[in-house]
Design goal:
The chain has 9 helices and 17 strands. The chain is α+β, with helices and mostly antiparallel strands.
């Protein structure tokens, strides 16, 4: 039976959608800011049945995707936000939706996890985001598919090429391809004597690819904006992350301040360029990082920003995702 022939039947009113969330330990999240919690609250409000797993709880047996799952209930309470029932072993193909919300690093363990999830997808489960897309769309490299949307960018392991790029643009950003949350991001000017050691560190002396981009000074005033894209369409507001006075990084995890703003014409043009391809490839929840009108990253693993925008504008962005999921299921 082909995957297309083996899709789950549409749910009736009497059959709640059964959801598995794969995430980092729920006990360790920051509920005021956690986008996964916003998703789970939205799913629970619709009467969906939620089951919880961490990466370690998944396995394959003779090609069948299995998991040790615990029933999960959530609350919008900053002190007491979840309760887990007793774990039990179940086949992942028995569910309708899997929310893959494990944070990077995107390492081999992450890739192995996508193989397990893909076996569930082959059995008819909707995996958000699509496992193949998670593997194919490195969050920094995938910008290369949309050069018209991006500032000058070089991906290389050649340190001489990095020096030439720095000489050409005079002010650049250098970062690894596997990081998240602003980790190991360096801003360099042409005469910076740290350039050699930074390029050596980023490329491990020319043995590993890294990325350098032209520095966009707009980040100081307007920040690094996160535009959430839901099944190819933008959420109504973006979250501008303004760096602190003592840091270059527009990342909330690095101390930036999150300020919501309305989308502008350029934002909508960027989503119009990228969103249709995201939809075609089954990427239902993606975050575009935009500085000065240019996309710097396309975040597909576990984009954030929902709770901050909902708080500032009274939106229910996770509900838009649940709408998209229901549409896919039907």
């Amino acid at each position: 039976m082909s995957p297309a022939e083996n899709k789950v039947s549409p749910k009736t009113v009497s059959q709640p959608v059964r959801v598995v969330v794969v995430m980092d330990p729920i006990s360790d999240i920051k509920p005021a800011k956690d986008t996964t919690l916003a998703m789970l609250l939205a799913a629970q409000e619709r009467g969906w049945e939620i089951w919880y797993a961490e990466q370690r709880d998944l396995w394959l047996r003779d090609g069948v995707p299995m998991a040790r799952l615990a029933p999960l209930t959530v609350k919008n309470d900053l002190e007491d936000w979840y309760a887990l029932g007793e774990s039990q072993i179940q086949g992942l193909s028995e569910f309708d939706v899997i929310l893959m919300r494990k944070d990077p690093p995107f390492d081999m363990e992450y890739i192995y996890t996508t193989y397990i999830l893909e076996r569930a997808e082959d059995a008819g489960v909707l995996v958000v985001n699509k496992p193949q897309g998670l593997r194919d769309m490195n969050e920094k490299v995938y910008t290369a598919w949309f050069p018209q949307c991006c500032a000058p960018t070089l991906i290389t392991r050649d340190m001489a090429d990095m020096h030439a790029f720095l000489k050409e643009h005079r002010h650049i950003v250098c970062k690894p391809l596997y990081g998240m949350g602003g980790r190991s991001i360096f801003v360099l000017e042409q005469k910076d004597k740290n350039a050699n050691v930074i390029f050596e560190t980023m490329t491990e002396y020319g043995t590993r690819f890294a990325i350098v981009q032209k520095y966009l000074p707009e980040i100081v005033e307007s920040g690094d904006s996160r535009i959430l894209v839901i099944d190819g369409e933008p959420a109504p507001y973006a979250l501008a992350r303004i760096p602190s006075a003592t840091d270059n990084r527009g990342n909330l995890a690095a101390g930036a301040k999150g300020v919501g703003r309305e989308l502008n014409e350029r934002d909508r043009w960027l989503v119009g360029q990228i969103g249709p391809e995201l939809r075609r490839r089954g990427m239902l929840f993606v975050g575009l990082d935009v500085i000065g009108g240019y996309v710097t990253e396309i975040n597909v693993t576990s984009p954030t920003g929902v709770r901050e925008l909902d708080k500032q504008f009274g939106t229910q962005i996770a509900g838009l995702l649940m709408d998209a999921i229901e549409k896919r299921l039907s």
